[in-house]
Amino acid sequence: MRNINKYWLAGMLIASCWSPIYETGTTAAAKGKTRSYVTSDDIVLRWNEIAVSTIGAQPPFPSTRFMATVQVAVFEAINAITGKYEPYLGTVTAPAGASTEAAAITAAHGVLKAFFPAAAATLDQQRADSLALIPDGQPKTDGIAVGEAAAFAMIAERTGDGSAPPQFHVPPNSDPYEWQRTPSCPAAGGVFLHWRNVNPFGVQSSSQFRADPPPALISQEYANDLNEVFALGDINSSNRSQDRANVARIYAAQPPHQGWNSVARQIIKTRDDDITDTARVLALMNMSLSDAHITVFESKYFYRTWRPETAIPRANEDGNSNTQPSAFTPFIVTPCFPGYPSAHGVGAGAAGRILWKAYGRHHTVTNSHPSVPGVVLTYHDLLDIEKDVSDARVYGGIHFRTDQDAAEHQGKSVAQWILDNYLRPK
C-alpha cells in the first residue's frame, strides 16, 4: 500500500512467490461463450489498447511509466468495487453495486487525459462511446465516480516522482570500458540519467536489484561477447540471416509497452476471465515493466560500460589477447546511454515473468511493426519472445550478449518482487 498524501493536489491538476497469480481459468472458446464488449474484461482490454495508442511514439521509459499509471488506476477502481485483491493505494472506496466497467473506463480516461491533454477531444469521445454501452442508472453513475477518484489518486501518486526534469551524463574520461558518446547522442550527453531516480511503483529502490558487475575486459567471456557482436551485428555482416535482421528491426522500432501489452491482450482474448483478474495482471505487468526500466538505468549509470560501436574499434586497448580492433558500424542505431544491462532485455524478463506466472508459457501470439512491412513474427512460447529480444540487440550490433542475460535476470527479479508484494489475493 502506498502513501498518497498528494491526493487533493491531483484533483486540482486534472479537475506470489512461485505460485500462479490466480487459478487458470477456462477459455471463452471452451465455455462456448461469445465475449461481449462491456462484460467480463473486454472493456479493460479496449482501454489498454487506447492507452497504448494515445501514448504512441514516446521514448520507451516514460511510456512504461504512463502505462503503469493507467493500468494501476484501472485496477484500483475495479478492485475498490469487487474487493478481490489487496489494493495498491487503498484510498478509493465504492458503493455496493457500482459498475466495474464504468469505473475502468473513467479511470483510464482520467489518467490519459491528464498526461496527454492534447488528445483530450479524442479521449472524451472514446469515453462517451464506451460509457454509452452501459445502461444508465445508479451503478453506472457510481462506477464513473469511482473511476474518476482512482485516476485522481494515481496522478497524485506520480506527481513529483522524479521523471522530470531530464538529466544528462558526460563521460568523466575516455578509459577503456567507460561509456562514450555515439553518433546518436545529443550534445548534452547520455540521456535518461535521471531515470535511476524515478520513484518505483513497487520495488523499494532503483538499486534493490542492481545487476552483478559485467565481465572483466581481460576475461574470455568478454572476448566471446565482443567477437559475437562483431560477427553478427555489423551493418554489412554476412552472418546475419534475414530472419534475425527482421527481428532486430522490429524490436528496434517497437517500444516494450506496445509489444508486451499486445502480447497480453492476445492471450487474454482467448480466455474468459473475471474483470478484476485481468485488470490485476495488466497492472502487475506494467508496474514490472516500469520498475525494471528504473532499475536498469541505475545499473547502467553505475557501471557505465561502453557499447560495441566504441569497444570494437578500440579492442587494442582492452588488454584482451582474444579480441582484435576493427571498423564497426552497428546494423541498428545505438541508443545514447551505457550498454550494461540491456533496457529491452530487462523489460522482456519482467513482462515475460508476469505473463508466464499468470497464464503459463505456451500461447500462440504474433508480433509485427509497420517499419518492417510484410513480416509477422509468430510465437508459441513466451520464452521465445525473450530469446528474440536478446538476439535483436546482439544482431542489431548495439549490445553484448552478457548485457541481455544480466538484464533478463534483473527483470525477472523485479517482477517476482512485485508479484510477491503487491495486489495479493485477500
Q: Could you explain the architecture of this structure?
A:
With about 425 residues, the protein is mostly helical. It has 2 domains: about 5-15 and about 30-160, Vanadium-containing Chloroperoxidase, domain 1, CATH 1.20.144; about 195 and about 200-420, Vanadium-containing Chloroperoxidase, domain 2. It has 15 helices and 2 strands. It has helices at about 5-15, 30, 40-55, 60-80, 100-115, 120-130, 140-160, 220-235, 240-255, 255-270, 275-305, 310, 345-360, 380-395, 400-420; strands at about 365, 375-380. Strands 1-2 form a two-stranded antiparallel sheet. Helix 3 (about 40-55) packs parallel to helix 5 (about 100-115) and helix 5 (about 100-115) packs antiparallel against helix 6 (about 120-130). The longest helix is centred in the last third of the chain and has 29 residues, at about 275-305. It is elongated. The chain starts with 6 loop residues before the first helix and ends in a 5-residue tail after the last helix. About 55% of the residues are buried. Mean pLDDT is about 90; it is low at about 1-40.
